[in-house]
Amino acid sequence: MTFASARAALFADDAETARIAFARLLEESPDDLDIKLHEAWARARLGEELDEAIEDLALRALTTGKSLGLPLCILGHAALRRGELHVARSLFRRACEAAPSLVDAARGKRLAEERLRRHRQTMLRSHLSFLVVVTSMVSFILLGARP
Fold it and tell me: Is 71 within the bounds of a domain?
């Protein structure tokens, strides 16, 4: 399997096929940064925990400029995991622009947007609750304390 076909499998959400193909490609080119990154992401898609090593690979891949979609997507997932919702959404948007066929980027973007929406709703409820308490306290003070 070629790099392009393995990448297509990964982008189409067939992580197992991609992992096997990238592992074989790594045997032939063990120092290839793009293959390392794609193989690590395939493993992550199969349930392996994201760690700093894959983030480092993604950052290094961004500097080469070969392919931006997957590195941006990986960094988006890392930001999402850290709770940096605005950063994650921005990275996923850029990943979707750079690689429109990357299913994980579109999925990540939707997830980040949903979490942001829920966060805003929670903050709004919290602010409204605070305003109710303050309004009650002001009313109590203005009307005076009566037994």
Answer: yes
Give yes or no for a contact between 38 and 22, defined as CB atoms under 8 angstroms apart: yes
Residue 127 inside a domain? The answer is: no
pLDDT in tens, 74-91: 999 999 999 999 999 999
Answer yes or no: is pLDDT of 23 > 60.
yes
Q: Are 95 and 73 in contact (CB under 8 A)?
A: yes
The three-state secondary structure class of 16 is helix
Based on the structure, what is the number of domains in the chain?
Answer: 1
Flag whether 53 is in a domain. yes
φ, ψ at 30 (rounded to 5°): -65, -15
Q: Please report, as a single letter, which amino acid is at residue 11.
A: F
- Rounded-to-integer distance, Cα 104 and Cα 96, Å: 9
